[in-house]
Amino acid sequence: MRWARHLRLLMAGAVAASALFAAPAAQAAGPSAGRLTDLVNPFIGTENDGNTYPGAAVPFGMVQFSPDTGHNTGYDYSQNHIRGFSLVHLSGVGCGLGGDLPVLPTTGDVTQTDYGRYQAEFSHDTESASPGYYKVGLKTGIDAELTATARTGVQRYTFPATDKANVLLNAGQSLHRTVSTKVEILDSRTVRTAITGSGFCQDTKPYTVYTITRFDRPFTTYGTWDGETVTTGSQAGRDGAFVRFDTTKDRTVEATTALSYVDARGAALNLRSEGGRSFDTVRGEANRTWEDRLNDVRAQGGTDTLRRTFYSSLYRSFLAPNIGSDADGRYTGWDQKIHRAKGFTYYQNWSLWDTYRTQSQLLSLLAPREARDMAISVIKIDEESGWLPKWGYGTVETNIMTGDPVTPFLTNAYQQGLLKGYEERAYRALKKNADGVPPADSSAVGREANKEYIANGFAPYVKDRPHAKPGDSDYDHGASATLEYALSDAMLGAMARDLGHDADAARYAARSENYRKIYDSSTGFFRARDASGAFTGPADPAQSEGFHEGTSWQYQWLVPQDLPGMVDLIGGKQAANDRLDSFFAYQQLLQDPAKTAREVWVNGPYDYYNADKYNPQNEPDLIAPYTYLSTGQPWKTTDVVHAALTLFTDAPTGMTGNDDLGTMSAWNVLSSIGIFPVQPGYDTWGLSTPVFERIDLTLDRRYYPRGALTVTAPGTSDSDRYIQSAQVNGSSYGRTYLTTDALRGISSLAFTVGDEPSEWGTSAEAAPPALN
């Protein structure tokens, strides 16, 4: 009876899909007809350590012009003083980074040089933000507005009528550790700075940011400061400068600040290339740029709140990585030498442990031209510094996080067709990274525990081992490092096989099963092993040690290369489903999805340990809900995913954990559309129920010849969320995944949904296959 019902639903779904696609014009009207930028709320994630920023930027821009309130990563919605509007921010990082050259308008005499003392009070009642624009009314009576181009921040201040309207440019204070600074007044309209900083969670090699600020009218006077000493009329200083205007008649002051990571000449060139336009002109261009970008995804259906959270997540997904090259193509490489990008744009800022799971795949789909240049930029890091990055900021390696995240990042680019002409160059770099360890004189740690991993099949957990280099150590997290290495080996093995490196392919495929080496049959879970090979730490998987930002419970499904093997290891599909149900508190979830997500799964933005439940706000568990696709119960993937989506709200607290340069935002976007990269570093997209009735994706024809993909799920809702059938280009489709090649060949993916689980996707051949 169930199969007969399933067949009837398949036929009904095919008819419905046929009718839907026969009249696309009838679907064009509706909530998506307005400006999509009006749906974006940049304040989402600015409270409760989402660590986003509300300021002005364009997609992947070098400049992120945003207010700093005293929070260690910049802006916190719960604070009510602004210390300055600074040029550099990264969305959702967990440690202080950027905040270079905080600028603040003031009135009266300049008597303080510490921005913690001269900060200005404000109220959210006089604050607003939209893509490419930010405005706030300070309680000093000054209105401040910000907008941006790729390499400049443009500011407009409206002062009270006064002859002492100041703009303070504070070079000596940032969100990171400032090593050295220099300030110069070049002429009656221009200020230049050089800021050398260091640090992200821990100290790093220093890097230098150069700025030049050009005002739209001459100063009436100016000065600089060193420490607490302010010298009026001084043209050179160490820590900061002030410039003064008479606003008794003309109350508005505009200025453009250009940025360069190369040199002062680069900043001046960027100013000439992108400056010289009015604030309103730049603001309009920034808004149009964002509208064009967001318009590649047209969603219909859903509540207004759902649409706002979706488009806000899509917006945040396009904030990083960031342009690193100047308008003439020059950039500072990781060898600290100046290079010139020819035929591509150089990018920087690589939160790879986070982004390799979601955001890099979303960019490959929606921004493949930029994603190609990003991948080439990472290859250039290897060629110029000797090693691939792990977590790169600006021109330096920070070594934050563990494992080998650069491998699935680059193999994803390869699998998505983004490395044409660079395949062998990428492979050589990845092979060196996978088989070796960077020398002592390299700033990179790479696969730090690789010697032991290759010899014994696991990275040892060595508690309290001194760090050889700044950053995190794989020895501190031997168990999770082993899982990450094995995942990367699988992805590299697949690339090697495609390129004809058969011996390498076999070797990496064998290493990809090293997850088995840390499986403790006495507990039924992964467990850290010490240098002697003995299992170590508490046997209780909720109390386990040696896992980075998680427990054995939360890492148990991080075997996307071989879920069938992992399922067999723990006793088969029934045992796996029982464990998954416990992990997700599935019975509670069915009774109250939102409450389960907020009270059972989530315990705080940094509460990673001592847990036996799903953590939807951190990277190790991002793929976990899709495990049900491999255990014959795909409807449960939808149940879990849709419950997790309730954590994204249209409020400052509406980000679940750190956004990590668009990682969580991309998870929201992909899961809302109903296609998700279940094997990061490969070309497999898992399927689940979309939250919108229709999503039209505009795709780059150079990579997706049809140029568009429409995903439909008529009637999808909290109750009618179960896939009854699926159709690809109008033909019945029974698998729970698509490959990138398949996506390139289709124009429609249609789901028929209902209020009860069905047999769709439950057969053995429906599940995503293991790589080997």
Describe the structure.
30% of the residues lie in helices and 22% in strands. The chain has two domains: 55-291, Beta-galactosidase, Chain A, domain 5 (Distorted Sandwich), CATH 2.70.98.10; 344-577 and 584-749, Glycosyl hydrolase family fold (Up-down Bundle), CATH 1.20.1610.10. With 772 residues, it is α+β, with helices and mostly antiparallel strands. A ten-stranded antiparallel β-sheet has the order 2-5-6-7-8-17-12-11-10-15. A six-stranded mixed β-sheet has the order 18-30-31-35-32-33.
Strand order in the largest sheet: 2-5-6-7-8-17-12-11-10-15
Mean pLDDT: 94
Structural class designation: alpha+beta
From the alpha carbons, calculate the radius of gyration and give it in angstroms: 26 Å
Distance between the termini: 37 Å
Question: Beta fraction of the residues?
Answer: 15-25%
Which CATH class of the largest domain applies here? Answer: Mainly Alpha
Which consecutive residue ranges, at least 5 long each, have pLDDT under 50?
1-32
Stated plainly, the CATH topology of the largest domain is called: Glycosyl hydrolase family fold
> What's the main sheet like?
10 strands, antiparallel
Tell me which CATH architecture of the largest domain applies here: Up-down Bundle
Tally the helices: what do you get? 22
Tally of separate domains: 2
Q: How much helix is in the residues?
A: 25-40%
Question: How many beta-strand runs?
Answer: 35
The CATH homology group name of the largest domain: alpha-1,2-mannosidases domains
Quick one: overall form?
Answer: globular
